[in-house]
């Protein structure tokens, strides 16, 4: 698990106005290799969905408590392109 002083999400090529955030499941999910990379549907059904932690107008997000939760990093470019998110991962 990362130390509280370490970022959980960091962008490369960050431009002024870009926003980043962490999506985190509302509750913990099952652990183990079969549950390491859940889908949106699994996060919704196992954990009751997710919440957005952010957005932040900087290169790094704040630390988010994630042990046994599903997390993913997301970004909204300032130039109007659609927001994008990485894949879900359960922090084990």
Give a short overview.
This protein is mainly beta.
How would you describe the overall organization of this protein?
With 92 residues, the protein is mostly beta strands. It has one domain. The chain contains one helix and five strands; from the N terminus they run βαββββ. The radius of gyration is 13 Å and the shape is elongated.
Series of H and E elements: EHEEEE
What's the average pLDDT?
A: 81
Share of helix, binned: under 10%
| Radius of gyration (Å) | 13 Å
Unreliable stretches covering 5 or more consecutive residues: 1-7
Silhouette? elongated
DSSP, total strands: 5
Q: Beta-strand percentage?
A: 25-35%
Highlighted features:
mainly beta
SSE topology:
Layout: E1 19-25, H1 40-47, E2 50-56, E3 70-76, E4 84-85, E5 89-90
Antiparallel strand pairs: 1-2, 1-3, 3-4, 3-5
């Amino acid at each position: 698990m990362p130390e509280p002083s370490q970022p959980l999400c960091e962008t490369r090529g960050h431009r002024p106005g870009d926003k980043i955030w962490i999506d985190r499941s509302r509750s913990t999910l099952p652990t183990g290799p079969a549950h390491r990379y859940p889908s949106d549907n699994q996060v919704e059904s196992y954990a009751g969905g997710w919440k957005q932690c952010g957005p932040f107008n900087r290169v790094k997000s704040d630390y988010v408590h994630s042990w046994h939760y599903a997390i993913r990093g997301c970004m909204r470019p300032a130039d109007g392109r659609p927001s994008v998110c990485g894949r879900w991962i359960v922090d084990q």
